[in-house]
Specification:
This protein has twelve helices and five strands. The chain is mainly alpha-helical. A three-stranded antiparallel β-sheet has the order 1-2-3. A two-stranded parallel sheet has the order 4-5.
Amino acid sequence: METFRPTALKKLIDFYTKDNIISLRYAFIGKWLEDNENFYLSDEDRGIVSIDNMPIHDQYGKECGIITESLTFESELREKLQILENELKSEILSSNILLSQRQKKEYWKKILDSFDRFFKNNPEFPKLFPSLYYLKINIKNFLQTQFDYNQTPETFTGSSYFRTKQTTTKKKLNRIYDFLINKEYINDEQTSEDEFCSILNDLKTDYCITFMCSTEMAAVILKLLEPLFDNLNPTEIEKSRRFKSKKGKVLTSSNLYKSFNKAKNNNSSDYQEITNFFKDNL
């Protein structure tokens, strides 16, 4: 059976970084300025180099100006992005065949989320290099027309187990999920992004979170999640049976209180990392 390998997604993530775009821009500028003494840099931010090619003469034969030719990094970038777009579309079509319904939607979401993270962190780039943004639009339209796929709505609606606050968006929970996965506090093979949101929001769910970290750090994470909900507290967490320790035991209210106080008093590097993340991102 053919195995699905998201190589195009990895290329997208590697390509859409500030360091990479700046490096490509300077490489483009250097390529033209180093070997062509007639070229000069006319716009460093956009990566535009120019050359004064030919004088313009008026009707009397007098020189009245110069024709300037410009070469833009945007043109070269557009060519690279066209290749990436083709690879992404091909991989998306393969995902529709090789992945389950849940898996392919998670994969498609990762593609669109990669764009969103890049532009959130680099809001100046769409204006400098529009083709970077056009690729996002093209892929989003491709997913919509081919598979009628749209990203999940921004806010939660209806009743919620822990009474999700109106100000708690799915993007906030997704950002928390990414952090917990990247730091290996939870495992994405055990808990997907959609399952994570279901556990925290849905009235009924078949899923639970098994923390991969110590119970102390699990208690800190749950404590810092409390402001996003009206009814997420140790008592309700225990009653829900939706959260388990690394050993697979349901987290109890008494255990959460004791573990949180212990973690707070120890003030470990993990404790600081978690609290700093929540402070900076919520």
